[in-house]
Amino acid sequence: MNQKKIRDSICFFKACICFIIYIPHIVICIFSKNKLKIYSDANILAQHLKIKILNLSAVLYFLHNNSFFRTLFYHRIGPVATLLIGWWKPGDKYFLISATTKIGFSCKVMHPFSTIINANSIGDNFYCLNNTTIGFKNNKRPTIGNNVYVGANACIVGDVHIGNNVIIGAGAIVVKDIPDNCIIAGNPAKVIKKII
Q: So where are the chain's domains?
């Protein structure tokens, strides 16, 4: 057994021991209208980290061990439920998601320190890295399609539409609409390659 598997096993064991702390979280998750989205978030993160757990086990694991996942979890369950249980085990204070942002299935946020997500909507399979800003300009917010990867230090602002299957390079400043199936980079961001 390698060190990563041992560490993951210890983390899961600690989460199971602390299960009683997360009973309110688990109950709210089970009865949440976004239950399947929460499961998909936990499953895609577990798959990425090569941890062989699924659904409620994955949710419990990441609730205990990942403050960024807790932020996404609290966004999924809504502000009222978060107010009731979020104080006990808070999310990360440097990762913010607007309460009005709609996010699809399988949202994967990897160490999103200093990240703000304030979009109209984000599709399925969204992948985001640290120091990303998705925000409004002139009271208008971005709309992001499915299968979008956002690199570190990227900035997407204003009334822009990001298509499906788009890779946004690190440090890109996106202020104009981006078509489907492309890689963009630069300031201002431009299409540098089409994805076939």
A: 3-85, 95-194
CATH 2.160.10.10 fits 95-194, yes or no: yes
Residue 93: both structure tokens together: 């204070």
146-179 confidence digits (pLDDT tens): 999 999 999 999 999 999 999 999 999 999 999 9
Q: List strand residue ranges (DSSP E) for the chain, in order.
A: 95-97, 102-103, 108-109, 115-117, 121-122, 127-128, 133-135, 143-144, 148-150, 155-157, 161-162, 166-168, 173-174, 182-185, 190-194
Tell which residue, 117, 119, 122, has the closest CA to residue 147: 122
**SS3 (DSSP) at 17:** helix
Over the stretch 33-63, which tens digit does the pLDDT of each residue have?
999 999 999 999 999 888 888 899 999 989 9
